[in-house]
Fold this protein.
Amino acid sequence: MSDPTDDLLARAPDNVFARIARRHAGRSPEERQRLLSQDVGEAIPFVGTAGLGVEVLRPTRVVVRLAPERATQNHIGGVHAAALALLAETATGLIVAQNVPAGSVPVLRSLGVDFQRRAEGVLRATAQLAVDEVERIRARPIGKVEAPVSVTDASSEAPVEATLRWAWLPEHKAGL
């Protein structure tokens, strides 16, 4: 059975993240996750450096994973606050980035993170957009969106609540 967003994927703008999503859409889940993580890490070096893994890269849904590693720990052995924020930022950035029109770039406008409790085990950030929101982003070379995200840990609880607002604008206005 095909994913109901296959048509959205096929019609995605010609940008680096949409091309990555299309390139690996038909692969096995394990191979797709490995290749998505590799390609996104090449496009955004810090994502690879931080050890984030991309599990799902679709126009309406992105899931990014962070396994507990010494490099992302804080002074009390938990996941560092900046790593938790990076996880939410990456998931929302990827969902916006793959939907912006060719020639436009996403820019993070604001990031709010409320820490609820200590995170345990593997973390996942899931960003989702409704189909009508995806179509709105794709239809305009400039705009703003609040990208919903949920961050859960191994207990399926939310160690943080995050609110991220993104804008996108033509590359020449971004100084590129």
Summary: The longest strand covers residues 104-115. Strands lie at 52-57, 61-66, 104-115, 123-128, 143-147, 149-152, 160-170. The chain has a mean pLDDT of 92.
